[in-house]
Amino acid sequence: MTLMADGHLRQSGMDRDEFLSILHESYRPRNYLEIGINQGYSLARSKTRTIGVDPHFQISAEVACDLKLVKATSDDFFARPGAISWFPEGVIDLTFIDGLHLFEFALRDFMNAERLSGPASVIIFDDVFPRSVAEASRERRTISWAGDIYKVMLVLERYRHDLAIIPLDTQPTGLLLVLGLDPASTVLNARYDEIVAEYAAVDPQCVPEDVFHRKNAADAKRVADSAVWGELAAGRDGDTPGSAVEAMRSLRGTARFTLVPPAETAWPVRARHFDRVRGHMAQVGRKLTFH
């Protein structure tokens, strides 16, 4: 906890974009895919060949990379023949998922990104640690909003024991690091409808206390400073080094976090209506056949 000049307490922990900057420098991805780019603040961390996907992007940040912008939903992007032909390597090294804040969309993004990744690739989710029930709502009601993306973490831990799933204590709403990818896995595809039927609950969400208090989160600085990133970069032409995956797993639970619920400033009614329309359009256009 940090006491700010205005007298308010602030959670400790590395800022999300600071972690992403260090990751880009340490892991040195040959390419980068970002789902949900909005104003481009996380996109600006990339210095490599990049694809940014967002049906409503409005970039205001300065971006300095070899960039292809795709104005489409992620489902439509992944359904395209040669979706990642922009990447000469033929696989995605680093994916950041920060699209629509509904877990089933993020889960589909993971499934589609994993099949186009290599064993030494990395996938990261944003917003896996809501700080209040309102912030975890599936329908956006507050300025600060994470949605129910935290459920992706629960689903992966339940169904994909082969993966290294590392929640990170970053501000404001956490990251989820996924290593040890298997592009050939069909586990989630086979169980997708069953998973959505079980986990897609109406608001208010029943968020586990372990999620609110980031019980199993890793200290983001220790993860960022790890020598594992060099091992993963060196192993891109082969299998993921098992020692690297285990080293990351060992950092789970090292974060020291104290929950400070966010100010629940209401999301404007007009914007809320737009979000509902956008979510409906995405639902109508979604593709449940994974390629």
Structure explained in plain terms:
The chain is built from ten helices and eleven strands. It has 291 residues and is α/β, with parallel strands linked by helices. It has one domain (2-285): 3-Layer(aba) Sandwich (Rossmann fold). Strands 3, 4, 5, 6, 7, 8, 9, 10 and 11 form a nine-stranded mixed beta sheet that branches. Strands 1-2 form a two-stranded antiparallel ribbon. The longest helix has 17 residues, at 269-285. The radius of gyration is 18 Å and the shape is globular. It starts with a strand and ends in a 6-residue tail after the last helix.
**What does the average pLDDT come to?**
89
Alpha carbon gyration radius: 18 Å
Specify the structural class: alpha/beta
- Determine the strand fraction and express it as a percent band: 15-25%
Level-2 CATH architecture? 3-Layer(aba) Sandwich
The tally of strands reads 11
Helix run count? 10
User: What is the CA–CA distance across the termini?
Assistant: 45 Å
Run of helices and strands: EEEHEEEHEHEHEEHHEHHHH
Low-confidence stretches: 1-10, 284-289
* Percentage of residues assigned to helices: 25-40%
Which term fits the overall shape?
globular
The total number of structural domains is 1
Please specify the SSE layout and strand pairing.
Elements: E1 2-3, E2 9-10, E3 14-15, H1 16-27, E4 31-35, E5 49-53, E6 67-70, H2 74-79, E7 92-97, H3 103-115, E8 117-126, H4 150-159, E9 164-171, E10 175-179, H5 187-199, H6 209-212, E11 218-219, H7 220-224, H8 228-234, H9 242-249, H10 269-285
Parallel strand pairs: 3-9, 4-5, 4-7, 5-6, 7-8, 9-11
Antiparallel strand pairs: 1-2, 8-10, 9-10
Helix pairs in contact: 8-9
